[in-house]
């Protein structure tokens, strides 16, 4: 269905203003979106173009378009064409980006656009999972274990074989040294997530069950991962 077929209905959409909300509002917003019937819609008001929402909403059966009403005010209109479950799991949206507009609204725009260019642009040469592994190792090198843990979880949920993580951790031992690995990486949430995967695989647990465990133990509820 074309946007022109429902554009005149947006005045009746429920408005959800998430400007200034700190933390991860995606889960709460997704729950509200799942209650919207086919043929109805919602309007999300944000201080930046809410690009991270689009893929999630499309997976639930929504079409969308966005208008910039003023500096620091975007209205994203979502119309539900059909009711369906999310076609693919999209874990750990970049909730930390919502902190940027608190500093400066233009910075919020820049940060989201930069994230979109880095992770969503179709002209990226390296496969998504390879870029996640590079991001993981860069994060470890910079001491950002939260980010490293999130990248590992996303890579596994995206379909990466755990054998790739074996190689990554072997290279971390080689590059960082046994002492650093033992004292800093071994006790970290990053390595705990890796051990969870390996132990559950040894128990012949289904990949779906492992993914759910990762999201539960190493998602936003975990204070060592939460951003």
From TrEMBL:
<protein>
    <submittedName>
        <fullName>DUF2249 domain-containing protein</fullName>
    </submittedName>
</protein>
